[in-house]
Design brief:
Layout (H helix, E strand, L loop, with lengths): L1 H40 L9 H14 L8 E5 L9 E3 L11 H8 L5 E7 L7 E12 L2 E10 L1 H51 L14 H57 L6 H32 L7 E4 H19 L3 E4 L6 E4 L1 H18 L5 E7 L3 E8 L33 H11 L3 E7 L3 E9 L53
Parallel strand pairs: 7-9
Antiparallel strand pairs: 1-2, 1-5, 3-4, 4-5, 6-8, 9-10, 10-12, 11-12
Helix pairs in contact: 1-2, 1-4, 4-5, 5-6, 6-9, 7-8, 8-9
Amino acid sequence: MTVALGLFVVHRVTDGLVAAEREQALAQLASGANYLGNELYGLNGPDDPDLDSTVRLAVANLSASGARSADFAVAVQQTENARLPAKYVLRYEADDVRPPAALARLIASGEQRGYEFTRTTVDERPARPFLVAAAPVETKAGRFDLYYYFPLDDQVATVGLVQNSLTAIGALLLLLLAAIAGIVTRQVVTPVRVAARTAERLSAGLLEERMVVRGEDELARLAHSFNQMAANLQRQIVQLENLSRLQQRFTSDVSHELRTPLTTVRMAADVIQMSADTFPPALARSTELLSAEVDRFESLLNDLLEISRYDSGAAVLEPEDTDVRTLVTRTVDGLSQLAGRIGSTLEVHMPDDAVIAEVDPRRVERILRNLVGNAIEHGEGRPVRITLASDADAVAITVRDYGVGLRPGEAQAVFDRFWRADPSRARQTGGTGLGLSISREDARLHDGWLQVWGWPGLGAQFRLTLPARRGVRLTSAPLPLAPGDAGTRYPRAIEGPRIEGPRTEPVIPHPADTEVGNRG
């Protein structure tokens, strides 16, 4: 803006000086042309013996007239009278005073007057800006062309002075603007930066960080409000941490304390179960139900203990190089009896070569048991397909069923603790409602993904993706989340956050951002 304003001012000053010089030059040219015509009016034609002396005297008088007699040159040029010199010039060499070619052609064409800004010289000095004005003078002695050479040294000096002044003023203005910006930065931007750094420290867990309050202006009130907000957040976070710690301790203590009476009840139930053949049918059935519920209670306690370990951050991964095919085979063998009882068949698709990954075998097998058992439970007696694939960075296992599927809107709750899609549904496996929650935590402990696809009537597919080696960051999976036999008629079959942008296939959420689904 400073440069643009300076250029505008210089342009306006230059235009004003040029216009004033042009008007003054044309006025002096008109006066000089009238004077020359009057001086030559009384002669008797081109052969008058006084013609030469009269022209010389007129040139001398014209050169001496005006306030700038020493600054400009006057030239009278003629080409019709061979007895006279071609050019009359006072104080300068005639050959040095050369009219501009374009202006000479303009005057020769019969124009009354003209002017041109040009760089030329009338002496030995280098060329410099001139305003050359010319007009033809018709007399009885012939035609004479009158030229005025006005140097623009004063105008150039004035423009230079204006430019230098504007440059100095612009530099001073920029310094003032820099000083103002520095003050604004110190008074406004710096406290905002301090607030940003304080917020970063708070987000990093340094809950004691506060801003320094100075003065009573708006920034001081902002710092006070920020500190108050930080104090409230700290108080709430501490309360939540205490509640969470109490909850974890309660869960862990209850689980441990219940183990002793549970062991006693288990021993008593086993003794009763051993004599169940001698009981009446109703009592034998009660004995069977007692034993089943004791088993379920023991599983629930184990799951609660495992959840409490995750909540307290005490869960430890024990990775080792494992052939994942072995884990899949053990899981299928362990659940084949349940599948046969319900009427489902387990279809396993695995590569022939070993699939080695650095995982915790116990936790991965637990995930697979939960996923396959869940698929059998909700598969409506239809086949359950387990697929294993791998690439250089990841191992993926999908468990596909063709049962009731997932209803829209329930996906965010599928991994919630004790959540069930249909509370009235009779369970076949006696689950505790914590299986998928524990499976998700096991997958996260491996830095992996546990995701789900589903649609009502089309079934569901869970996908477990694990890094092949510890420290590898997953960016893709060897198997797609949406099964190929689902078709493309259900573009919103995947629940939860979605990848931005248009899609021509079922939308799949970004693996690193969400685990979604609809199964309890």
